[in-house]
Amino acid sequence: DLLEIHISLSEIKRAAMRFDYSVVNTTTGATVTEGYTWHVLVGSEFKAITIPAPVREMLERDPAEFETVE
């Protein structure tokens, strides 16, 4: 079966961001599974650091304004 994986950035905090995932069977249209992961930015001492402003600006852009990859 051919699967499609949908990823979206659902939450941004000071030092972390949450990505939501869904896996869809393209033949049946059924959602196979859903989940999420948290990603924390850490510095050289492995302590959480604030997301740099340029990175935060990129993350907060409206995805509708950009070309999608298929």
Brief sketch in words of this structure:
This protein has 70 residues and is mainly beta. The protein is built from 1 helix and 3 strands. A 3-stranded antiparallel β-sheet has the order 1-2-3, with no helix packed on it.
Structure commentary:
The chain has one helix at 53-59; strands at 3-12, 16-25, 31-40. With 70 residues, it is mainly beta. Strands 1-2-3 form a three-stranded antiparallel sheet, with no helix packed on it. The longest helix is centred in the last third of the chain and has 7 residues, at 53-59. The protein is elongated.
Summary keywords:
70 residues, mainly beta, three-stranded antiparallel sheet, elongated
**Which geometry do the CA atoms define?**
elongated
Low-confidence stretches: none
- β-strand amount: 35-45%
Q: Based on helices, strands and strand pairing, what is the structural class?
A: mainly beta
What is the distance, rounded to the nearest whole angstrom, between the alpha carbons of the first and last residues? 17 Å
Compute the CA-based radius of gyration: 15 Å
